[in-house]
User: Fold this.
Amino acid sequence: MFPVALRNALRLGGLGYFLALLSTSAGASGADRGAATFHREIQPLLQEFCSDCHSDGAKRGGVAFDELNSDDAILNNPTLWLKALKNLRAGLMPPPRKSQPSDAQKRTIENWIKDAVFRVDPQNPDPGRVTVRRLNRVEYRNTIRDLLGVDFDTEKEFPADDAGFGFDNIGDVLTLSPMLLEKYVAAAKSIVTRAVPVVPLVPAEHVVKGKAFKGAESLEATRTNKNAATADGLVLSYYEHAGVSNQVHVEAAGRFQLLLDFTANERFVDNQFDYNKCRLIFKADGQELWQHEYTREGGKAFHYEFDQNWAAGEHTLALEVHPLTPDQKQVRSLTLRLDSVTVRGPLESTYWVRPRNHEKFFPRPVPEDEAGRREYAYEILTPFVRRAYRRPPAAVTMDRLVALAESKFSQSGKNFEAGIAQAMIAVLASPRFLFREEGIEVATSEAPIAGAFPEVDEYSLASRLSYFLWASMPDDELLRLAGRRELRKNLAAQTERMLADRRAEALVRNFVGQWLQTRDLENIQIDARQVFAREAAIDGDAEKRRARAAELRQKGEEHLTPAEKKELDDLRATFARRFSRPPRAELNGDLRRAMRLETEKTFDHVLRKDRPLLELLDSNYAFLNERLASHYGLTNLHVTGDEVRLVPLPEGSVRGGLMTQGSVLIVTSNPTRTSPVKRGLFILDNLLGTPPPPPPPDIPPLEEAAKAMKEKTLSLRETLALHREAALCSSCHNRMDPLGLALENFNALGMWREQERNQPIDVTGQLLTGESFTNIRELKRILASQHATEFYRTLTEKMLTYALGRGLDYYDVATVDRIVEQLQATQGRPSALLAGIIGSAPFQKTRGFTPAAESRATAASQQPIEGKTPL
Amino acid sequence: MNHPDMPKSAAQRHFALSRRRFLRGLGACIALPAFESLVPRSAFAGEIGAVTASGRPLRTAFLFFPNGAIPGAWWPKDAAADFEFSPTLKPLEKLRNSIQILGGLDQKAANGGPDGAGDHARGNGVFLTGVRIKKSATDIRAGISIDQAIARQVGHLTRFPSIELSSDAIRTSGACDSGYACAYQFNLSWSSPTTPVAAESNPRLIFERLFGAGAPGERAENMRRRQQEQRSVLDFVLEEAKGMSRRLNGRDKEKLDQYLTGIRDIETSIAKAEQFGSPQDPGVETPPSIPQDRAQYVQLMFDMLALAFQTDSTRVATLLLGHDGDNRSLPEIGIAEGHHDLSHHFNSEEKIQKLTEIDRWYVQQFARFLQTLEDTKESDGSSVLHNSMILYGSGNADGNRHTHSNLPLILAGRGGGVLTPGRYVQHGGKPMSNLLLRMGQVMGLNSERFGDSTAPLADV
Assistant:
């Protein structure tokens, strides 16, 4: 099981990372030895296997090995050799039809590249350098939740973060524009206002949740509404009469306020509208306080307040909904969701109480005297800042902060609480909160070698761990251990604890969401009608009608003759009739959610149960609920209900494994049809780690394809075959197309299909590496057996990128290789992957500012900047 | 309000109706002359920039639509004053005297050349910068964009030096175009070669930024109170940033510099609030967040831009209607396929037809916006459009072939009288940067070069 394995894996690495374990022949190899080896062993191999295209005047892909005319040019070009290494390992170079080096020869080249060019020092591997990271939207939201208990919707309030290397937590590309900073400052204020009470006493509030109102059933709330507040609402239809009520009891007579909160929702339907109206009436003790008519309001929230003089005792609150438009078509499921009615009072100050959360932030009474208040301010703010900055604050920071609080609470009319709140706002706007500042461990006498790359300090390590596994701040335990410098000693136990925590869902959600692009499911548009139309017989009349309507529209409505105008109106009516019939499946919110969960839960299952990672490629189970099982045509499995859960698949099922999950099939489709090219690319890029280069900028052969298309409607397979005839296209499409075409039995909605455009679907194919397959089941087996190493390496690279917040470079090859070896040795256990990443040099250390290391890396990874500097 | 292409079908009428709740108020505001109180005071009169000869505010906006346009349907037959409107540009016909069609302008820096694939990243990233952008997923390097260059020079005249808008809120995960950082493809504005200026895509948030949060009438006070509270926060964080900065190096320092720039910007805006007084409350309800309906969304963003200009909140703006490579479908006009997928049309007539409809749809939204500016009169009777320069265009010319020559570009407005619209002018293969430089100079940009410009564009 997972915990034990993880602990062993991390122990194995222990604190010495993989120093002792690193397989190497390098030793203390110097540049001279590297050059000598090159001339003796490598150059003959290059001559034998590569010279046709890469020397003697040939310079395919811009690479000519014989242009490396000095030892320096040979040895100081890690970028070139990294490409060579990748192509060699993937079997892409030399190309399959050319003569191939033996495995031993390949290893010779690999080892030389790693030893002589990358100069991996097993005693002191280069950990690389991460640019200081700004919290991204997800991290900010989670951090605020854990710091203050407030759910702040960053997706709504902040602009999208830029991504690099496929992930949105990459330090280099997380920029901070003035507008975003303005938003951070505003957010700090609104978050603290929501969390921290700024007055010592307030009128009592009793919130009656919508669900507590009785008299009508709540319609099922839309499942996309995530937070608890919406789940507590009572959903009433515009189309039905309803009357609901609730009794409240008040202890004392006095002035009260009633706060009514509700939201008017609709289910979005493309191009169809709902003209229904309803009247809402709000009553207290039978007396009407409010009535109003509502039409379609587009999800708007409403808030009203009413003053009441109430006697002590029972009072009745009631709401009525009256439909006003019985004859209108009901298209968009218009609903009013009663969120809550809040009874505030008595308003007379003698009845006031401490506000919610007051005790949490102000555990003891506020002292009267100035010195006492100042001391209390330090007492409250110091632990808060330590958590917000994820390390102990400097004394000068605390002095400034307390001074800031004091300047506010010493103002007349301002109290202590308001001063503390103002200081907290400043903390949330500070760069030390918004950026993850890292420090290095002060060198101790235990330092293994002089000049070794330093470890990051334990507070930095705590943050690296927590943002990797939780996408959030370290909790108190991590900070406590870091404070005692005991975190490194307890890494295995802590990792285990963190993974067991609910917050670890963030790893699955964010890593998988971006690696496999399941995040995009939410917004992707697939036109179900068009998808199904490809599977049905071709309807020539419908095509003609469409073309005619377009032609008429193009003329411009103002230029149409009355006859043409009538014709256009008739055509529109025909379309409208066709569109009013729902297609047999639609990519709605429920389905999107089920598909996203299927992929997330698959990964979560493998991760937490420490199942072999190859089950991600091929497995005999799937995660389904009723809706998804029926979408996949698996009704015989009798999956019922809404919960997405593990379901064993029958022998020979085409499902099982990521490639045939709806999420992957959909995000790799076009809005109206499948895209074998996108699917092939997805597999190469995200599962096998050998993405082809992007297409060339100008693609003349497409014109040829187009000519052929005019004569006859080609199937996708035929079009692609035509495409591959061009040498320019074939080198990459020979790799992408067979993979993508193997999935052609799955339409753009991820459903099984047998034919397209009246033609049966042919999914047979052969991989560039030689293996043939006749169906998707065979392809999965081939990938999971023959290509397991590529998959391990790809997943390792992706997850390491996510964990480090930077792109990988040549000096990371050793780290990745080491983890892949561990995966091979453990049959691909996720525990080995996580332990490998967390124990690795780049995760544990930093390059710091060693000038030599910095300059070499700069030379290798930065190219001269082209173009002019403007102005 | 009088719009050139008011939607006609029942369904479309309803879009208009549901928007009306917001626009009813806005309409009243548009009918008013632009706010007098915000016309620059005499203190600025001696300075150059962003003012017309008659002393009215001079505005400029740069609008970007995705994936180029079908050339055959975009370009009118003859380059002349009496040109006949092409199918795609037809919605602009009523505004003939306010627009000029610019032919023969190129963005050579967007050509593949040594960098190979990535024409969408380049089409987008080069559009307003005119420089070759660095092909890298992380080491971002473009150039300052023309709007930001102008804002540096004339931004002090208004409450906001510039505003950056986008009606393209959704990002997809995974890598972006061919090894280019996503930043190139989603940002038009760059305040420095390494700092893209993120655009605001939520209409509600733009409105609140311009006028303050809350109900009509309460906004100015809310904004004032907020800024007052910000002061003490700013003092503190500035000290923290200095402390942090001492320990950072290289790239890290760049990040912190972005932070410090942001802090200075907030300080400037507080100072400006004192200088300009409270913003005039447009007296309309705050608009909703992003509507689901595409047309409604795009129109709302245009409304925000119009409002910013009318209230003289800023004189410089960009609006990214959709990023280059945008693959959204437009079910509103019956197009289910993705825009980018369609744009590689294999010369299929059906696809070209659909693309032409998309191109025309964008032009329709643009025309509607221009009409709003035309209908808004300043106190001297001239229209806001008369006193503006609005550039509308795309970073790809032919989306099928990814070309960046003879880009589809339209310049609307008279720039307060210095421009001569009502024509289709062929410029015969000059850098688009020449146009950007010329526009910059009209706005008061004190520079002889921009991007890969060779000279300011003549005959505009």
Remarks:
- The first helix of chain B runs from residue 10 to 31.
